Amino acid sequence: MGFLLFYCSLFVALVGTFSLLGFFLRVWFSRQEVIFKHLGISTRQSLWFSLLMVGVLIMQGAGYMRWWSVGLLVLLLIVLEFFFLSKRTAHH
Fold this sequence. Notes:
Helix content is 85%, strand content 0%. By secondary structure, the protein is mostly helical.
């Protein structure tokens, strides 16, 4: 139970941290007037990156981490991101 709570709290902390960092970096480098357009993208990408980091830590702790398993996880997250990007551009 302790590991589950640790990984859940780590995931939430990473999502919050990466979301804020991604949002502020996007606002800083972007010249758009509506800055809150970046919030959804930053949050979604922080979810993927946090999922990757926690997934790698779980695989490492369980002894299942190999280069190809991490590669498959990265590939899965890239496909998910492209899916959401294509869905977003189809609606606009």
